[in-house]
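Comment thread on ticket #2218

A.B. wrote:
> Attaching the input chain for the structure job we discussed in standup.
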Amino acid sequence: MTILVFWQHDLPTPSCLLSELKEWQYFWKQYTPTLPLPGNLIEYVKYADVDMYPNIRVLLIIGCTHPVSSADLWLATNQVISQKQDHGLMSGCQDLHS
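C.D. wrote:
> Ran it. Output below, let me know if you need it in another format.
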């Protein structure tokens, strides 16, 4: 969770990040592309609607501006998020599907 704390001041709604990531993951599991999947972060930003995924959009934009070495941070963040999701820490955020 300490990695997420590093970025929390840059996020519009940091308390809902984990819930938003779950919705983002669901979106991509349900995605049936007529075109190839995005090949880089800049292309993924196009799918991160500012109303539906405000935190993810900000993180993707940050990722676009950091050197490639920040991929290690992204991998570590995903591991922490997965662990926290497994423990049900997403309560308190509104369901983004409603």
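A.B. wrote:
> Thanks. Noting for the ticket: The helical segments are 2-7, 17-30, 41-45, 54-65, 71-86.
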